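CO-FOLDING WORKSHEET

Operator: S.A.
Ligand of interest: zinc ion
Run index: 242
Mode: holo prediction, single chain
Checklist:
[x] sequence pasted
[x] SMILES validated
[ ] output reviewed
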Amino acid sequence: MTTTNLEVPVRALAIGAHPDDVEFGCGGTLAKWAAAGCQIFHLVCTDGSKGSWDPADDAATLVAARQEEQRAAARALGGSGEVTFLGWRDGELESGLRQRWDACYWIRHYRPDVVLGHDPWKRYRLHPDHRNAGLLATEGIVAARDPHFFPEQGVAPHRPSTLLLWEADEPDHTEDVTASFDAKLAALFEHRSQYRATMRIDDPSSVEQAEAFRRRMHDRAVEHGRDAGMTYGERFKRMDDL
Ligand SMILES: [Zn+2]
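OUTPUT RECEIVED:
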């Protein structure tokens, strides 16, 4: 069964592998909820240090730039700009106990009603960071809800009510992002260091290239919304029994 439009949560936490993943995956949904009073938080697992095609780029400079871009993007979605960076090395994220400890801690800290993340079970997914970040969202919830996991954290257990997975292998839930699509785009455009690598914008001053990117995002949102009768949608796999 396909469902639409969750009740606006009080707090939402989006867990992404890299700076910009959250905006691509659920930016419209977060912006819609933020406009309705929801507190939105970002947890970014890696440092984004491989997000450049230029071998001459300095990794530390890129990491710092991407953190600033991510905070600006979070604000563009309507949040406070509060972003937690776990700082694992880009391209080498694992879903081991140490990383699970982190995910558990921040879920307990932020106490989100809804957690959003990558679908770790999407078939034919190439990037290991996306798979492992998705696993961390699910495994972090399992640990966060149970007092016997990581009791040394000294933070009360917390059980979110819903998990939404983007780029879902079997989507069964759609959020209407018609009114928040522009905010999603504005947030994506804050990731200036990613114009070349992920947005196919070689020339930041090119109106045509920016328009082509906007058009691709438009087409995707239309496709996601179509079956649910929405102008623009974001599709997810929804899990409530956490
Ligand atoms: Zn990514």
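REVIEW:
The two ends are 18 Å apart (CA to CA).
The chain has seven helices and eight strands.
[x] output reviewed
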